């Protein structure tokens, strides 16, 4: 019997009508129906068409309009849940208190959102800094996606002095970059798409740093992103 990872109550299997009719694979989160009520999925038909923020109708949100005006490439993000109180509490327990078991709570939704796994897509997680890793002893983004998708850890964090030294002067003069590409991303140019993976989309800054690190490393294909919450 599967139990809810948040309250330890047994989970009653739910099969959506869609799954029954079309015999599609249906993946369930490790949440009981009462805990599920604390989370709100984002309706993919009424959200910002760029960052995936929940809106009353499908349009472009103010933050993305501002980004559009600043020019530069826009990153299309899909977010599955609203960052509400329930989600805040979940991350508090998972990342804040370091309850590693909770990485599997939303595995069903993440699997559902990325099925079928396309061979031509590279799944690239946003890395955690070594100081955060030292605190938690695990990488929360790898925790969420590592058992769900075949991931390629192409990006790494600049841990200041050591990695900064490897950059050219020109690279260092550009806006401070959080990440760098661990291998020449130009080798990946035959791939149609890179899907960046992160846990929460707040301002988008982290994901945009990921995007620019891949572009700086020479990747020319399509780049989109997926986050659990927005
Ligand atoms: Zn529960
Ligand atoms: Zn937006």
Question: Can you offer a commentary on this structure?
Answer:
- With 230 residues, this protein is an alpha/beta fold.
- The chain folds into two domains: 1-37, no CATH class; 38-229, no CATH class.
- It contains ten helices and six strands, in the order αααβααβααβααββαβ.
- The protein has a four-stranded parallel beta sheet, sandwiched between helices. A two-stranded antiparallel sheet has the order 3-4.
- The two termini are 31 Å apart.
- The mean pLDDT is 88.
- The site of one zinc ion has 8 residues, from α3.
| Separation, N- and C-terminal Cα atoms | 31 Å
Which structural class do you get from the secondary structure elements?
A: alpha/beta
Q: What is the strand content?
A: 5-15%
Compute the number of structural domains.
2
The number of distinct β-strands equals 6
Helix count, DSSP H or I runs of 4 or more residues: 10
Helical residue percent band: 25-40%
Q: From the alpha-carbon coordinates, what is the Rg to the nearest angstrom?
A: 18 Å
Mean pLDDT: 88
Can you summarize the main beta sheet? 4 strands, parallel
Q: Which small compounds were modeled alongside the protein? A: zinc ion
Order of helices and strands: HHHEHHEHHEHHEEHE
